[in-house]
Specification:
Elements (H helix, E strand, L loop, with lengths): L2 H6 L6 H7 L5 H8 L9 E5 L5 H7 L4 E6 L2 H10 L4 E4 L12 E7 L7 H11 E14 L4 H10 L3 H7 L13 E11 L1 H9 L2 H5 L2 H16 L10 E13 L3
Parallel strand pairs: 1-2, 1-4, 2-3, 4-5
Antiparallel strand pairs: 5-7, 6-7
Length: 250
Amino acid sequence: MNDREHMSTSFGRAAATYEAGRPEYPAAAVEWMLAPVASRTPLRVADVGAGTGKLTRAVLALGADVVAVDPDAAMLDQLRAGLPDVRAVEGRAERMPLPDASVDAVVLGQAWHWVDPDAGSREVGRVLTPGGALGLVWNIRDEGVPWVARLTEIMHGSNAEQLIADGGPRVADPFGTLERREWAWTRRMSRQAVLDMVHSRSYVITAEPEERARIERGVAEHLAQHPSPEPDGTIDMPYVTHAFRAVLDA
């Protein structure tokens, strides 16, 4: 197993921390990804790389029937604990345990950067109904804010952040050009939530103990010097949500 594969399958070791530290997805972004198929009843959606269910919950809120797919059993256990009525199965974008033409949309949150885009696109095309939608979304901290950029330097950048900085994801046949939208927003976070976010990152999860300790010290010192802490000690973390969608030919 190479380093990338090792990191991509590391999250189950920190499933509860992931759930506590990672942000939810803006409803507007999820609605936009599913807009091409929103009129279908029932709307059947596969959330692939579902993790602890962050995106699953946002899709459920729109009234869809959702199947959650993830390669990590520990992450799915966390999802099932919070969403016991959702069908959750082990699988990955390149190989989903779903029948042909069985869902109207496939969505991936913070996940496509771990996917082989050629194999993943073929498999998504297989499970989608004609005219079905592929939606990809990432919550990325706004590193145009200097103190946020410094936070990333301390805890190490991620594959997701690099993909977005490089221009965004790539899809392949049977999909064409991706549409793109962005939403800027802020998340009120306690300092513990910031630390949970740090500890939920694959680089930190897989780091050697000395490196992890260095990151923890650096983050704690950086937060202590935050220029405008709230009276209760919380901070407003600026995010930009980057969403992409493509539609399968009918």
